[in-house]
């Protein structure tokens, strides 16, 4: 989870400032080449993934105490051990794991360690990672494992040619997909994007294209009441193709998605007037995507109704949808805390569990969705709560 201490961010170092200026110049050139305006979706793609310049393409520490945010696997191995408990049910008859965007590699290491203890190791653990520096961190983490575990891990540059029979994992992947942003005027969307004011990048609205107009008409028809003019939000049109591609990579088994997000009716709530876009730098959060370019993360919450719709269209079953807290309780986090060997370890685990479970921390904002194909494995992670009706 990207956690916030203040809306004020620390100043950039000289190297960070130079990097940010280089990316800003690159994006400005793209704005000029595009006739003076770029969609926010294109801007976000450049800010995060421009080769050698984007946040996930350039070498910097992103995750952990020295980075910009902390994810659940980085916070505590309790999270990954609970994920492994659900994986074990699917892998009881064998199979493999494919993880999208494995962060520092800590979840992969902890999942493999827990599955080894349960006697149900996957045939292989494949990692698909778009960030070269994160892949290096993952390799260092995996290399510290016993050879019998490390040798099962492989890195992929693209989806596997042979579909997976087993489990696909994606923790905080969907929130980083570039999204469209819009503002409502006279009940209709105008698309938000980027223009230039001198050499400075500024936000500008432009007429929405057919794809955005048609999609908003479809979504708004499902909402309980019209939203007010001036309402700003996001639509991630890339989520559907992502789910379809991931579904193609799953022959049989389960896909587990972990991310902060909401069902559609809550996502486009009348009180959520400024959308869900957030930027993260040095554990501070703010809502200005046009500063700290290339050295801050940029995310938007996930419309889980869209994920469910896309999954069904791709031939998957929506087998479970719950809060992170319910998932972790269902997969035995309380038992893992109780198993601590001494009082000091118990206190440490209890503190980590509170951050993973409490509504004010990660417990409620994060959701977990299980998508399955030809899989009837038990679902302990979804035994305590079923939020599928809210989709």
- Termini Cα gap: 22 Å
Overall CATH architecture: 3-Layer(aba) Sandwich
**Sheet/helix structural class:** alpha/beta
Low-confidence stretches: 1-6
Indicate the percent of residues in helices.
Answer: 25-40%
What's the CATH C level?
Answer: Alpha Beta
Q: What's the shape?
A: globular
CATH fold field value = Rossmann fold
H/E element order: HEHHHEHEHHEEEEEHEHEHEEEEHEHHHE
Beta percentage is: 15-25%
Q: What does the radius of gyration come to?
A: 21 Å
Summarize the biggest pleated sheet. 8 strands, mixed
How many domain units? 1
Mean pLDDT: 94
> What is the overall number of helices?
14
> How many DSSP E strands?
16
In brief:
With 391 residues, the chain is of the alpha/beta class.
Structural commentary:
- It contains 14 helices and 16 strands.
- The protein is of the alpha/beta class and 391 residues long.
- The strands form 3 sheets. Strands 2, 3, 4, 5, 10, 14, 15 and 16 form an 8-stranded mixed β-sheet that branches. Strands 1, 6, 7, 8 and 9 form a 5-stranded antiparallel β-sheet that branches.
- Helix 4 (77-90) packs across helix 5 (106-118) and helix 9 (239-248) packs across helix 11 (304-313).
- The longest helix has 20 residues, at 14-33.
- The chain is globular.
- The two termini are 22 Å apart.
């Amino acid at each position: 989870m990207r956690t916030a201490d203040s809306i004020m961010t620390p100043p950039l170092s000289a190297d960070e400032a130079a990097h940010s200026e280089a990316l800003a110049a690159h994006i400005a050139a793209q704005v000029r080449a595009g006739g003076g305006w770029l969609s926010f979706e294109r801007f976000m793609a450049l800010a995060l993934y421009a080769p050698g310049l984007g946040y996930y393409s350039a070498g910097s520490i992103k995750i952990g105490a020295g980075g910009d945010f902390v994810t659940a696997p980085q916070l505590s191995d309790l999270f990954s051990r609970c994920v492994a408990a659900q994986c074990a049910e699917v892998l009881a008859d064998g199979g493999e794991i494919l993880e999208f965007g494995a962060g520092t590699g800590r979840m992969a290491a902890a999942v493999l360690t827990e599955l080894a203890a349960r006697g149900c190791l996957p045939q292989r653990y494949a990692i698909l990672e778009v960030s070269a520096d994160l892949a290096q961190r993952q390799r260092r983490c995996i290399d510290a494992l016993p050879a019998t575990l490390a040798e099962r891990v492989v890195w992929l540059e693209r989806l596997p040619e042979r579909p997976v029979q087993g489990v696909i994992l994606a923790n905080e992947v969907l929130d980083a997909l570039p999204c469209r942003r819009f503002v409502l005027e006279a009940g209709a969307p105008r698309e938000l994007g980027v223009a230039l004011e001198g050499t400075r990048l500024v936000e500008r609205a432009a007429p929405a294209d057919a794809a955005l107009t048609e999609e908003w008409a479809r979504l708004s028809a499902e909402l309980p009441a019209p939203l007010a003019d001036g309402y700003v939000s996001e639509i991630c049109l890339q989520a559907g193709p992502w789910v379809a591609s991931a579904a193609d990579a799953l022959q049989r088994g389960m896909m587990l998605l972990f991310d902060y997000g909401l069902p559609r009716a809550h996502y486009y709530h009348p009180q959520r007037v400024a959308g869900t876009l957030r930027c993260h730098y040095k554990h501070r959060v703010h809502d200005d995507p046009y500063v700290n370019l290339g050295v801050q993360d940029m995310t938007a919450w996930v419309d889980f109704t869209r994920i469910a719709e896309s999954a069904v269209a791709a031939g998957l079953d929506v087998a479970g949808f719950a809060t992170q807290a319910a998932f972790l309780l269902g997969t035995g986090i309380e038992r893992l805390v109780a198993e601590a060997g001494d009082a000091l370890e118990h206190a440490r685990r209890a503190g980590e569990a509170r951050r993973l479970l409490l509504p004010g921390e990660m417990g409620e904002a994060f959701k977990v969705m299980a998508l399955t194909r030809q899989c009837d494995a038990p679902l302990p992670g979804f035994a305590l709560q079923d939020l599928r009706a809210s989709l």
